[in-house]
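Q: I have 249 residues here and want to know how they pack in 3D. Can you give me a structure?
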Amino acid sequence: MFPIRDINPTRIFPLVTLTIIAVNVAVFFLLQPFGDDIESQEFFYEYAAVACELQTGDPLSLDEINRDVCTEGPEQPVFPSKNVELSAFVSMFLHGGILHLGFNMWSLWIFGNNVEEAFGRVGYIALYLVTGLVATAGFVVANLDATVPLVGASGAIAGVMGAYLVLFPLHRIMTLVFFYIVAVPAAFFLGIWFLLQFSVAGADSNVAWEAHVFGFVAGAALALPFRRVLLRRTAEAQRVPAPGPFALS
């Protein structure tokens, strides 16, 4: 299943959602090295979150990288000036390839504007960052000894999707299924998406499914206690006259 758009128009200009998309695109094309060469790998090890580093508090050594093992000791790190804690934040703006970037930003565009309208700009930024960090923490807890860099906005976007599920479960998502486009309730689409994350559990894949699961649950948990208030904010926003209607989905 591939989401095309949602049938859930807003009355706001999704400034935060567009800014997040722009930042991710700019980082990918202007700061990240291209390709799968050594330079790209070094870039990720230098700036991205690594579960082993977040567990030990120390940057990886060359031996840990080469042997794919996580150890604690006085070994010389490859990037001694790396800020391990900051890397958990930086990772949310790095991507492993153009398809990775494209699918993440497309998903954020579809689900982000409605959640931004409900939470307001400040609340939406907080939701995005908190769920992204929770997603990273969830991956670390499940993979304490992992020495592979964790990159992508998927965990934070999963948080946005979890909040969308709580707020708009019956709104329709235009979805490409094989060769047909069908309208399905958001609860169905997002429920299937969530369950599919477990299909790669234990498989030899590069999908950080644990981050998706933790981010999604965190987003839903943050939205649920405030659902009535957030929906009231949405209704009030849509009653306020605007320069022109925005059917952004």
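Q: Anything worth noting?
A: Residues 32 and 152 are 13 Å apart (CA to CA). The chain has a mean pLDDT of 91.
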